[in-house]
Write a structure and sequence with these properties.
Shape: elongated
Structural class: mainly alpha
Number of strands: 5
Largest sheet: 3 strands, antiparallel
Oligomer: single chain
Strand content: 5-15%
Distance between the termini: 28 Å
Number of helices: 11
């Protein structure tokens, strides 16, 4: 059950949050935005902080009051809330996630909760077992961290080498912007503070992967993307390696600007190796 604490809600995730599910709300089925949907959106605003509420504000896309959140934006907002909670370590790894309890806490029907959990399962942050429902995934073991980073170490340096001679000045500028964003973004410790940093880091690597112009490498890179979210499930630590990551990204960019494909490959390999070392240290700190 969702209990009010201060300005928001405290979630109960386990089986003790059981009971009859809330009645189905119109927001799950209507095609056009309406008052029922706005009511759900208002409920979510009461259960989250200002950052998430801003995500639901339609003012950025059209003049205030001209449109209300659609079902898609509601589902996305539920996903954002649950992702933030998971990344902040509440609930704990291994804990059961009760769909009806989450629906009551966020004042929505179970449908957007199920959709959000299905998306989170694809990232590896939650697991689902038949007849047992969803649970928060355990933290990566040391072996899993090594395996993930070794896989990235195979794929991403090659991406950097192939992308170097395919980069236009405009794309290089986009890479430079992501490095500036890393330097300017908050570094935690809460997930809402550090997600801008992580988004900039992800954009840097995505741009390079996309410009390697190899569909098989891109597919392999994207297959690892969800696991990177689970790899980052070290709640409460914030960004611990920003200065090192910025320096390493800058080295990669310098090689790309010089059209030195081999140097770009080496710089990316060194970056992934360093991230692997730092990830092990973060895991120890999180235990």
């Amino acid at each position: 059950m969702g209990a009010r604490v201060g300005g928001g809600y405290r979630f109960t995730f386990g089986p003790e949050a059981g009971g009859d599910p809330p009645p189905r709300k119109d927001t799950d089925t209507i095609a056009e935005p309406g008052l029922a949907e706005q009511s759900c959106a208002d409920g979510i605003r009461r259960s989250i902080g200002p950052w998430e509420a801003t995500r639901m504000d339609p003012a950025g896309a059209s003049p205030p009051g001209n449109r209300r959140p659609t079902r898609t934006s509601l589902a996305d907002s539920v996903y954002d809330i649950l992702l933030a909670r998971l990344m902040e370590g509440a609930p704990e790894p291994g804990e059961q996630l009760n769909i009806d309890g989450l629906a009551r806490a966020l004042e929505v029907s179970p449908t957007p909760i199920r959709e959000a959990l299905a998306r989170l399962e694809s990232t590896g942050l939650v697991t689902r077992a038949a007849l047992k429902g969803y649970r928060v995934a355990p933290l990566f073991t040391a072996r899993e961290i090594d395996d993930l980073m070794d896989a990235r170490g195979v794929i991403e340096p090659v991406n950097a080498r192939l992308a170097t001679n395919r980069m236009t000045s405009g794309v290089i500028s986009k890479l430079a912007v992501t490095i500036d964003e890393l330097a300017e973004s908050p570094r935690g410790p809460s997930f809402t503070e550090i997600r801008e940093y992580w988004a900039a880091d992800e954009r840097f690597h995505n741009i390079i992967a996309e410009h390697a112009d190899n569909e098989f490498l891109l597919s392999a890179y994207r297959a690892l993307g969800g696991h990177v979210q689970r790899f980052r499930l070290f709640g409460g630590l914030g960004v611990t390696d920003a200065d090192a990551a910025i320096a390493e990204h800058t080295s990669i960019l310098t090689a790309i600007e010089a059209s030195d494909a081999e140097a770009a490959q080496r710089a990316m390999a060194a970056h992934i190796s360093s991230v692997k070392t730092r990830a092990r240290q973060d895991r120890q700190a999180r235990r």
